[in-house]
Amino acid sequence: MRTYRNLAVGGGAAAAALFALGLAVPANAQGPGASVQPAGTRVNVSTTARRCDALAGVPSNVLLFPAVAGQASRCSATAGDIITEAIQRRLRTQGAGVFPYSRSLPAVQRAVNEGLKAEDVAGPWDEAGKGQRIAEMVGASEYITILVDDYKWDPQTRTVNFTISLLRNDACDGAPLGTVSEKGVGQAPETLLVSCQEASAVSSAAEVVAEQVVNALLPVPKVAAEDLKNQRRRR
Fold it and tell me: pLDDT, tens digit, for every residue of 125-136?
């Protein structure tokens, strides 16, 4: 079993600063010299999840945990923030009601004040049912965990490689509702400041990979629309 380490620092403040500086931009506006090379997606979405989603629509109360990295991945907190925010934006574009995890959430603060240990509300979120307990505590219906593996940054070619995995679970019992993994490659423009190149490469790759993994994990509108069409035809 892989071991993951927490990446989040400051609730995404590092990524927000990068966006304010124009270093982390959508994939369709990366500027000259930037490139993304996405790979194939591996998807495992349960039949039960598909059936429930077709009836209920896109989930409206999803807790999103910050990205965590495998111990062998040299993924920085800044890169983790960029990836987390790209996933969050894509989930909202897809129509999901998502809110990011923070220790400042009232329910979490209250639990800590009442004696819950600090390590019980800190990542990694995929170990020993921790994510499920927190999601239930804050009143979410589902939760999504982001795992980052095989992270490699090559300053000579200004290229970054990594694999993102999303795990979607039910908040009541932790039952898996779907998983998806995607490999991505991003390259920063040669003209960019050296100190900003890694963040730029991560951003360009993250935007594309986020779209692919979220579309694969939550293909609800299309499924529901087809079911509705078939019902009308049978009438």
Answer: 877 689 999 999
Tell me how far apart the alpha carbons of residues 117 and 115 are, in angstroms, rounded to a whole number.
6
pTM of the model: 0.73
Residue 27 has pLDDT above 70, yes or no: no
Nearest residue to 181 via CA among 75, 45, 20: 45
What percentage of the chain reaches a pLDDT higher than 70? 67
d(CA 198, CA 225): 40
- CA-to-CA separations, 197 to 16, 114, 120, 192, in angstroms, rounded: 16, 44, 35, 6
Residues of the chain by 3-state class (helix, strand, coil), percent to 5:
45, 25, 35
The Cα 48–Cα 46 span in angstroms is 5
* Runs of H (alpha helix) within 32-165: 47-56, 77-93, 106-113, 130-137
Give 157: exposed, middle or buried? Use CB within 10 Å, 0-12, 13-18, 19+. Answer: exposed
- The residue among 44 and 82 whose pLDDT is bigger is 82
Round to whole Å and give the CA distance between 235 and 233.
5
Distance CA 142, CA 198 (A): 32
For residues 201 and 187, the answer to whether their CB atoms sit within 8 Å is yes
Q: In the chain, what are the domains?
A: 4-234 (3.40.50.10610)
* Tens-place pLDDT, residues 59-112: 889 999 999 987 666 788 899 999 999 999 999 998 999 999 999 999 999 999
